Amino acid sequence: MYYNSFDTWWWPFLFIFLAGILPTSIWRWAGVLLVGNVDEESQILVLIRCVATSLVAAVIAQFVFFPSGPLADIPLWVRLGAALGGFAAFLFWGRQMIVGILAGEAILLLGYVLFVP
Amino acid sequence: MQYPNENAAPPLNTASGVYDWSWALRGMRNLFSLPALVLLSAFIGFGGLARNAGLPLWEMIFLIPTIWALPSHLVLLAGIVSGAPLITIALGVTLAAIRMMPMTMALMPEIRAPGTKQWHLLLTSNFVAVTAWVHTLQRAKDIPRRGRLPYFVGFAGTMATATTIAATLVYQLAPALPSIVVAGLYFLTPIYFATATWNTARVKSEHLALVLGFFLGPVAIYYVPSAGILIAGVVGGFSAYGVGRLLAKKGRG
Question: What ipTM did this prediction achieve?
Answer without folding.
Answer: 0.87
